[in-house]
Amino acid sequence: MEKNKKETNNLSRRKFIANTAMTAAGVMIVPRHVLGGVGFTAPSDTLNIAGIGVGGMGRANLTNITGQNIVALCDVDWDYSAKTFNDYPNAKKYLDYRRMLEEMDKDIDAVVIATPDHTHALTAGASMSMGKHVYLQKPLTHSIYESRYLTGMAEQTGVATQMGNQGHSNEGTRLFAEWIQNGEIGDPIEAHAWTNRPIWPQGLERPEEQPAVPSTLDWDLFLGPAKSRPYHPAYTPWNWRAWWDFGTGALGDMGCHLMDPVYLALNLGHPTAFEGSSSQVNTESAPIAGMVTYYFPERASLDKVKMPALKFNWYDGGLLPERPAGMEPGKIMGDGGGGAMVVGTKGTIICSTYGRDPYIIGRENNPPQVKKVIPRVELSHEMDWVRACKEPKASRVEASSNFAYAGPFNEVVVMGNLAIRLQGLKKKLDWDGENMKITNIGENEEVKIVTTDKFTVINGDPKFDTQYETINAKQASEDYIKHNYREGWKLS
Fold first, then answer.
1. pLDDT per residue over 378-411, tens digit each?
2. Of the candidates 162, 53, 44, which has an alpha carbon nearest to the alpha carbon of residue 100?
3. What residue range is the signal peptide (predicted)?
């Protein structure tokens, strides 16, 4: 591994342009460009796929891809990813995705990415710039600007894309949207989505201990574009979601699943404002529980439904919306993981996590029978993307959650963290979606954010020592919207 690290630090910027083939276990893997270029299809054609971030959800995504060639695997933690390496013993293994893309450029058709949130945009952007199709785990990106960037990259490069919010391909998500758009609950007037997450520690302060970095982990590569900090096992391999520098909290983890049926059904687009509240939020990690309200403007009416302005409320940490009228006592809203709900002028519709099991209150045993107008996904979410990768761009049916849809949607999801982190301004924040700006923060407005909150108990009486950092709110908002990366890291 030490040799790999040294080689990584000495990467040249040249691209390997020779057509190559990779022989493994006596089987010749022929890259698709040899057969006819990106978009070429043939009955027996297969994709050469690389995985970036393969220790957790990445392994599940690769398992769900059948009949394709997994030719390369990349992960900064070779212990956490060992099971995946064992799954594909003939795949070439890497620590640094940049090295993998350079060395295997012409041998890779498509990339599956399941790294921590803060490296999504860089890994996907680099892959797309080299003409690779991209399957990217949710949330699509760590910041709003990164979402806008990847949306543009997908349009520019013409590669096939898919965000890993697998519920978007479900039948329930489509029924939820079709019932609403057919007027089964009247005109929608408010919406809600909620989750039991986090199911990992949040509201944490930065650890003070500095244990040794495991020999199987390249800590500098894990940090990637984030500011340098000492290693601690509280950050990786799993709890990175809690930390602002690496993850997007419960909202980023589950918002792309739970808000999706509502966003799809109501054609929401950009909100005009948002505001948030939460349990204590600090400079390091997302709060234990929070609520965000998005304000969406009136949209174009459909044949059977008007789309008036409405509020869309998000809840995490086990918080829930008010139980709707007519809800059977004792009946759970959604399921144990969360759910979504739209209240209309004629009724209320609810679904479970991933858009599953939609029903209209009072019509549980008499669901609407409406025309299926949204195309169905016959394959798995991952294989729907594989199908799209193999189709020529000119005639391609894009994957269900391709970046043209997922990019604008993800902007809405991750902007909720702006509401949480800037709640100290104590006002609704007006949003200019086209220009990605909060328009009502003054040049000199400030917010105080907790840096540490410790206490001691003296004779049964807790004595608190809460420390704060005061930051310029306008500058902070701009940094949250468009990150400044650590030196040596930039979008392709």
1. 999 999 999 999 999 999 999 999 999 999 999 9
2. 53
3. none
